Amino acid sequence: MSKTIKPVVAIFIIGYAIIAILYFNDSITQDQLTASIYAGLLNLFNSFIAFYLFEKSRGKPNKIFLLSVLGGMGARLVVILTAVIIFIKFLNVDRDGFILVFFIFYFLLLSVEIMHFYTNVKAKNIMDTNERNDG
Fold it and tell me: What residue ranges do the domains of the chain occupy?
């Protein structure tokens, strides 16, 4: 899991370093800064739930694995969509800044999720192939 956390931390450090520079140069307002923090935290929550569900279902039968990963993806989508609506409607955050930062972090973290899934499934397939060749 630590190999997965490193790119996530790097994305947030670089992203918020850029946002901090923009804020201290008066390029973005306090409201936009707050919106970006909410967007980043929401994406962080989403990614860690995805990693947790993947790790929990790894090594289980295919049906349970697919139900956990794909079912979790659907449930996360509903939760994230609901949270986005709540943030925009009720927390009175900067709508444009929130949506922009949300989607930037969402797609960056989604690529990290995909790479995590791919490398773990690929490693499992290599191990399974080696076991079959040894037996």
Answer: 2-119
